[in-house]
Amino acid sequence: DTGVSQNPRHKITKRGQNVTFRCDPISEHNRLYWYRQTLGQGPEFLTYFQNEAQLEKSRLLSDRFSAERPKGSFSTLEIQRTEQGDSAMYLCASSLGVQQPQHFGDGTRLSIL
Amino acid sequence: RKEVEQDPGPFNVPEGATVAFNCTYSNSASQSFFWYRQDCRKEPKLLMSVYSSGNEDGRFTAQLNRASQYISLLIRDSKLSDSATYLCVVNLNDYKLSFGAGTTVTVRA
Fold first, then answer.
1. Is any Cβ of chain B less than 8 angstroms from the Cβ of A54?
2. Which residues of chain A neighbour B40 with C-beta distances below 8 Å?
3. How far B42 CA sits from the closest chain A CA (Å)?
4. Res. B50 pLDDT band, cuts 50 70 90
């Protein structure tokens, strides 16, 4: 399978814990995106990488959130001191270039107890 | 005002029917447009890009009206497998996609 891969698929954790998600994009795609989706809403943009450079961050990305793409391949999204409101589906997408369609991974569903 | 607005539906149609729905977008500078399909608790999947001249992919037809800032999707000869949420997506710049909340379509036997 050469699509976008995310893990874990599900994460259940207690409030206040830190969590980290991983995304492996389609191999030839240099652009990688993170989105968050809650029930009944469309995905909301969080951040974007071109190769290893993080070029844009949404206001939704509080200082508890950090994303990296150290070698321009896979990316990680870390949430520190999780809160109830962080419960959502976290989606990763990748694309080949400017204005090209973005292809999504299966997502990581985060539940905060 | 939301960047992309869609009628949430649901559109409940019999097999074989035609169903059509629109979305509107607020930013006239939007550059590219897409329809994505999302099944329950799954990731969005690209259905089709939307071009100014309108385009068709099998039973699906998409139209873009830049003057009125709306995008439409028409599904002909609906199949049970077309039941899903259809997300209208607008590219506001060279990286950020803005999604509508989705239109739910249910095709019944």
1. no
2. none
3. 6
4. very high
Spatial contact of B38 and B105, defined as CB atoms under 8 Å apart:
no
Closest residue on chain A to B31 (Cα)? A99
Element (H, E) at B104: strand B103-108
Closest Cβ opposite residue A40 in set B41, B42, B101: B101
Give the strand pairing for B55-57 and B60-65: antiparallel
Q: Which tens digits make up the pLDDT trace of B26-36?
A: 998 888 899 99
Give me the amino acid identity at B52. S
What are the tens digits of pLDDT across the range A60-79? 888 999 999 998 899 999 99
What is the rounded CA–CA span in Å between residue A73 and residue B85?
A: 31
Looking at beta carbons, which residues of chain B come within 8 Å of A109?
A: 41
List all residues 6 or more positions away from B80 whose beta carbon is below 8 Å from its beta carbon.
Answer: B15, B107, B108, B109
Whether the CB of A85 is below 8 Å from some CB of chain B: the reply is: no
Cα separation, A65 vs B70, whole angstroms: 34
Reported as a pLDDT band with limits 50, 70 and 90, residue A98 is confident
Residues 6+ apart with CB under 8 A from B37: B44, B45, B47, B84, B85, B86, B87
The whole-number average pLDDT for the span B11-17 is 97
